[in-house]
Amino acid sequence: MRGAVVVTGGGKGIGATIARRFAEAGHPVLIFDRDEAAAVSCAGDIRSHGGVASTFVGSVTSEEDVAQAMQLAVERYAQLAVLVNNAGISCNRPTLELELDEWRRTLDVNLTGVFLCAREFARRVSAGDTESVILNLCSMYGVVAAPNRLGYCATKSGVAMMTKSLAVEWAELNIRVNAIAPGYIRTALLEELIADGRVDAEALLGRTPQKRFGTVEEVADLAFFLASPETRFMTGQIVGLDGGWTANG
Ligand code: NDP
Fold first, then answer.
1. Predicted TM-score (pTM) of this structure
2. What is the chain's percent helix, strand, coil content, to nearest 5?
3. Ligand 1: which of 89, 109, 180 to mutate, judged by most atoms within 8 Å of the beta carbon?
4. pLDDT of the residue at 127
């Protein structure tokens, strides 16, 4: 059996597709999500396709939950190979109306969650022969600015720097750390926002050189590639996946 993959926020959206992608390649997957129904459904789907998956229901912001989730993965699958720090939240509102607790919640999930999961994972993978990989879900809004998303932009920019800092610090532990910075990805949530008129699809596509949204499969394929031996000399990188948005200065 290949090493286990822990996917935070793996119950739905991008995380669920990443979990399925690794499971299809023979990795046992631990889906660590606060949404129990979504986690159970995703794990069930993986198992129905012949894969191996478990769930842990909890929050990446809780030191105790994070320790228990990693412990469960080690007990079930012995060897941890990959951590995908995918759980993330956004709070879209004008900064003049942003409440302190919304700001703190965004920092807690998007930054503290990444720190806690990365630290616990690194403590449990042994230095030496076997390489381990951490992949962080950043965002193009960690690279370029957008109005009404102060906490999201600040935290995703923080995730980019955490990616570089951890890559430098943990190279000696044989842990590679890279990040994916997606643009607009066609998730169920984006579909809903477009249908409600809260997101102007035409304006977003007009700004995107490739004139389309990305797919969750494209993010999962990139995640799988970044965890593969083909990228073994690559660490500390923030890889854009945005149809040309950030190149379109
Ligand atoms: P979703 O909201 O669809 O899924 C995220 C999952 O993570 C949900 O099940 C959510 O549960 C869970 N989650 C949230 N907070 C926690 C927590 N504290 N502990 C454990 N689980 C938690 O997200 P997406 O698939 O859209 O995005 C995934 C990642 O990709 C995020 O980091 C996001 O910032 C990034 N990204 C997404 C883009 C997009 O277009 N979708 C573009 C760029 C980056 P619940 O539903 O209960 O909150």
1. 0.98
2. 50, 15, 35
3. 89
4. 61
